[in-house]
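Re: the 429-residue chain
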Amino acid sequence: MSLEELKRKRAIPKRNSDITLHNMKLIAEESNRVADVAHNSEKILADLDKEFESQTGLKGNDIKFLFAAIGLQMARIVILNELTKTETAGSQNRNETKLHRFQEELLGKFNTGLGIQERPYYASIEHIVTRAGVPYDATAPLTEETLQTILAKNEAWNFNLEKLLPTTKLELFKGANHRFATLGHDPIVGLIFGTGNIMTNTITCVKTPVLAGGIGVPVLTTNHVVFTSDFKDPRIATYASTTAMLKNVIERTIDQPSAFVASLIKQIIHIGTDLYTPCGIQIPGANLILSNSEVEKITQYISAGDVIKVGVSAKLAELINFLISSLHMLMYDETSCMSRNLYTVKTRKIILYSNLIASGSNVIWVAGNMAAGNSKAIKQLDIGGLIITAKRLVSDVEFIRQVKEEFVFGGFDKLIQGKELALEETIWD
C-alpha cells in the first residue's frame, strides 16, 4: 500500500467522526429546542391564541359591515312589527285599505261588464271582482223582515228568494267567532272552501259534535248567502249542500276559469286583511280538531299571523345574513397573508355579533315595556330573529372554535416538528 493510499484511508475515519459529531450536535440542538418549546408550551399557546384573535379581529371595513348588518336587522324588526301591528278591522285599518285597493286594481281586469245575474250556487263575476266582502263574513240570518228589504233592493237574483228562507233556527256560531267556525277563514283549508264560497255565494261552517267517549268529529254545513243588489247586508239563508257547492265550483272552473282565479285571489287577499286584527286568523286546521270556542282561545295566544310573522322574520334575517356575508367575502384579498379560513372567521363574527346585538336589543326593549305595564309588547318580540340568532350562535361558535384549534394547535405542532435536520451520511469507501 502506498503512503498516499494509507493517508486517504486514515482520513476517512476522521471525516466520518467529524460528520458524526456534527450530526450529534444538530440533534442535541434540536432536542434542546423541542424541550424549550415543551417547557414554554403554555406561553406559546397563549401567544398563538392572541395572534389568532389579532388576525381575526374586526377592523376597518369589518366594522362598517358590522354596523350595516346591525342596521339592517334592526330595520327588519321595526318594519315587520309596524306592518303586523294589530288594528281594528274596517276602513281605518291601513293594511286592509291597501290590500282592498290592490284587490280592486287587480280584479278589475276580470270584469266582463255583462251585468249581474245571481242564483243559488252562482256568484256573478261582477260580484266577485267589484266587491271587497266575502259571503262567509255573513253573521245574521235571513228573516221575513230582511227578505222584504232585500227584495226591494234586489234586481240581481234570477230566483225566488223566498225559497231560501231558513225553515229552522240557524245555530252556526255566535257573533264574532264566525272566523273560528267558517272554513273560509282557515289560511289553508280556506283556499278550497273559501274560494268555493266566493264563487257560489255560500258559507261553510264546521261543527264538532261530541260522541260517546268524548270523541269529537267535525261536521261541515253549508248555507246559501243572500245579498242586496249592491251586495251589502249579507244574510245567511237556508242550508245548502257542501257536495253540491264543490261540484258547482269544479264545473264553473272548467267553463269559466277566470271566475276561479279571481275568487282565489280574493280569498288570499281577504285572509291577508284579517291576519292582524284583534280576532286574528286561526292556525291551519284548528277548527277541524277543536271546538270553535277552543280555537278562539288558542288564537288569542298564537294565530296564523304570528306563525307567518315568525317565518317571514326568520327568512328575512337569513337573507340579510347571506347578503352581508357574501359582500364581505368578496372583499377578501388573495394576495394578503391571511388565509381564507381566517377571513371567514371575521365574516362569521360580523354575522354573529350583528344578530346578537339586534336580538338582544329587541328582547331588552320588549322586557322594558312589559315591566312598565305594556303586556301587548310581547307581540313585538322578534321570535324569528331569535331562532336565527340561536342557530348562528351554535354554528358560528363551532366553526370559529374549529378554525382556532387548527390555527393554535397546528402552529404549535409546527413548532414542535421544526425544520427537517440536515444530517450528513458517513461514507466508508
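The chain has two domains: 52-81+306-413, 87-277.
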